[in-house]
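Subject: design request, 733 residues
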């Protein structure tokens, strides 16, 4: 076998080691499934084998299904769907069910089988362990986690997870693992009853083998006579309450946008009332249903395949090779600069954090100290490690300490003159190969680079707030930015574990251009007399994490006000005022409502509680509309405003790759993840239908809904963004 090896010891225990060649992690491909059937048959039929222990030859146990292989098969089935839907569904079932059948054969092979889980086991990898009769888990691997991440990409655990976990730990305890993608450590798994023992890595195999010898007639609980669900099945007084309210809870969390959550509940409810063999077939049917939905297809593509490729540096210029960023300088120790310092120190990078006085610099470092204190309190790290991370940050006012940094991040206020002054001060000190990155949110990088003596090493590094929680890093190329500078910026992104997108220079770049369309459309509707609650709730119902007014509060109203002022100053007579201008100006200058940071914005804040400011009606120019628009009309305005701007950036060549546009929209401002991103949103609707609806919105509400000519051309030709712009090497996926 290629992926597994069998080593039978003197006691007749077969050690089955999963170790796929030329892969950093084991995954469940079609070839792997075939080999599982092969060694399961050998264990079952060979009388000299008394039992088996399944482990991994890698640091991780198994990362789950091979989604890239699955994606290729899905492409072929999608074509068949258009010709014969029922045939496509039958074929898909035959493609998917063999993994479930293989795991079922494993647990009914007639010999005891234990899993020796030495590292991370997620999705199908966890299901492989659950199909064994016992599980022994290493307690000294800090990266070891168990769980089902499938719901995060629009799927469900499709190899028995929805059936085995509830039968092991009960319906209520299973819900967070299945519906919330909760990942657990070894000791929590032990306390929940999902594993038999937690032992040191050095004792893992021996402990599993000892159990096999002691349990020659092992069977899964559900294959034994008189099996009962822990805590009661769905038809019992104890088990029924979960299902009585579960649909409502799922609706509240997902607004009906994530079919995987509903299908998981159906799998658990229906499967719990059936024998295991029938239950597994039910699970597979619901899994296939998801695979044929556009939501799942888009989420798998964007949140798994595209993210993996982009995180690995797919945007790196071909002329460049990966390098190292070991020391950075950060100018400005405010909230953004302090956040960049924190994630850099966490990644093992030495940091020089500079501000205008020592008190401000020390305050910036305090964020790292405070965040590490929280981690120590939650037992996620030790005090020794926390102190070591904080020690990597030197808080200072001395620019001379920047002499040997690899990269500088300027994170001062949105003021062109101040940024120019900082650029010159830094360049007097740093080495010739060091990169200067400006964390501006709106000012064109080419304009800022005019202050630089070496614009080829000048680049935009747009972080999102709060830095330690937001996954995206927008890398902006100036007119003279070199490929070397882009590559070093990607090195930095990789090291601090951010998802990078590389975009061309324009005011607002990609993310802020699009997110401002979202926020602006919310304020446009406010000025027209649409009720604020309808605006906010429609946005959340469309899949946005927060409404546009709430988002403006989070990023700070005065920041929007400052950007407005700076843009007006930069454009001079070319500046055209919008409907949002009087709202922002009044909120800051008249009412001193700056957003969440001062507890007053479009919302009033009381700790974690918030409510819409009752006086927002003053911004409705002609008063509240007597007849409010439909929920769908408001949703369309919110979603189309963002998607059209994303399409404009593609048409203008600001973003070249639809994968980066989709990832930027999801991780930059939270564009409804179930859509796969702003560009996938358009492709799923279809250019022709999308343009027709956009034209209706334009005629009713304004030119913000005018689509670019590129999109009109695509509507005529029937093209998609992914078909037209995806790199040739990546189209198959």
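Subject: RE: design request

Done. Sequence follows.
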């Amino acid at each position: 076998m290629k992926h597994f090896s069998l080593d039978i010891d003197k006691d007749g225990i077969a050690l089955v080691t999963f170790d796929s060649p030329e892969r950093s992690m084991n995954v469940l491909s079609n070839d792997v499934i075939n080999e599982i059937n092969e060694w399961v048959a050998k264990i079952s039929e060979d009388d000299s084998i008394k039992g088996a222990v399944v482990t991994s030859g890698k640091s991780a146990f198994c990362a789950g299904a091979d989604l890239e292989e699955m994606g290729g098969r899905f492409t072929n089935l999608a074509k068949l769907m258009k010709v014969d839907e029922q045939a496509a569904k039958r074929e898909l079932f035959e493609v998917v069910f063999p993994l479930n059948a293989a795991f079922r054969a494993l647990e009914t092979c007639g010999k005891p089988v234990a899993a020796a889980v030495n590292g991370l086991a997620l999705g199908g990898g966890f299901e492989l362990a659950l199909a064994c009769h016992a599980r022994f888990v290493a307690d000294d691997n800090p990266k070891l986690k168990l769980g089902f991440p499938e719901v995060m990409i629009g799927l469900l655990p499709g190899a028995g997870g929805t059936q085995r976990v509830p039968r092991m730990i009960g319906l209520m305890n299973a819900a967070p693992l299945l519906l919330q993608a909760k990942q657990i450590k070894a000791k929590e798994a032990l306390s929940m009853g999902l594993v038999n023992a937690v032992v040191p890595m050095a004792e893992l195999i021996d402990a599993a083998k000892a159990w096999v010898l002691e349990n020659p007639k092992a069977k899964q609980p559900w294959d034994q006579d008189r099996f009962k669900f822990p805590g009661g099945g769905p038809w019992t007084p104890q088990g029924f309450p979960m299902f009585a309210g579960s649909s409502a809870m799922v609706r509240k969390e997902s607004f009906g946008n994530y079919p995987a959550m509903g299908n998981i509940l159906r799998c658990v409810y229906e499967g719990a009332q059936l024998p295991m063999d029938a239950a597994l077939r039910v699970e597979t049917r619901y899994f296939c249903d998801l695979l044929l939905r556009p939501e799942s297809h888009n989420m798998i593509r964007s949140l798994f395949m595209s993210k993996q490729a982009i995180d690995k540096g797919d945007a790196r210029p071909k002329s460049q090779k990966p390098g190292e960023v070991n020391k950075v300088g950060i100018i400005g120790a405010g909230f953004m600069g302090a956040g960049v310092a924190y994630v850099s120190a966490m990644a093992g990078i030495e940091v020089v954090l500079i501000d205008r006085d020592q008190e401000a610099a020390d305050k910036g470092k305090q964020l790292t100290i405070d965040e590490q204190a929280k981690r120590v309190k939650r037992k996620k790290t030790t005090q020794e490690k926390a102190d070591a991370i904080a020690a990597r940050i030197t808080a200072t006012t001395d620019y001379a300490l920047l002499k040997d940094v690899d990269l500088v991040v300027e994170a001062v206020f949105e003021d062109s003159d101040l940024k120019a002054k900082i650029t010159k001060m830094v360049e007097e000190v740093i080495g010739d190969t060091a990169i200067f990155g400006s964390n501006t949110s709106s000012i064109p990088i080419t304009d800022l680079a005019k202050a630089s003596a070496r614009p080829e090493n000048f680049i935009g590094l747009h972080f999102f707030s709060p830095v330690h929680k937001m996954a995206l890093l927008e890398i902006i190329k100036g007119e003279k930015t070199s490929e070397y500078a882009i590559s070093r910026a990607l090195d930095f992104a990789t090291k601090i574990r951010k998802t990078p997108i590389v975009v061309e220079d324009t005011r607002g770049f990609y993310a802020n251009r699009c997110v401002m369309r979202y926020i602006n459309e919310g304020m446009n509707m406010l000025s027209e007399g649409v009720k604020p609650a309808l605006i906010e709730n429609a946005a959340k119902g469309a899949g946005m994490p927060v409404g546009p007014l709430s988002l403006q509060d989070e990023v700070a109203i005065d920041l929007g006000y400052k950007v407005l002022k700076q843009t007006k100053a930069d454009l001079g007579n070319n500046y055209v005022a919008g409907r949002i201008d009087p709202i922002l100006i009044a909120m800051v200058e008249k009412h001193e409502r700056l957003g969440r940071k001062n507890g007053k914005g479009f919302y009033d804040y009381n700790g974690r509680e918030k409510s819409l400011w009752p006086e927002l009606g003053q911004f409705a120019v002609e008063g509240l509309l007597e007849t409010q628009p439909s929920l769908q009309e408001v949703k369309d305005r919110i979603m189309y405003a963002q998607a059209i701007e994303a399409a404009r950036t593609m048409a203008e060549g600001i973003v070249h790759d639809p994968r980066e546009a989709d990832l930027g929209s999801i991780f930059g401002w939270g564009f409804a993840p179930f859509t796969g991103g702003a560009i996938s949103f358009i492709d799923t609707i279809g250019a022709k239908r999308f343009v027709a609806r956009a034209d209706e919105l334009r005629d009713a509400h304004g030119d913000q809904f005018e689509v670019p000519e590129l999109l009109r051309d695509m509507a005529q030709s029937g093209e998609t963004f992914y078909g037209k712009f995806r790199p040739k090497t990546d189209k198959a996926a």
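The first helix runs from residue 30 to 45.
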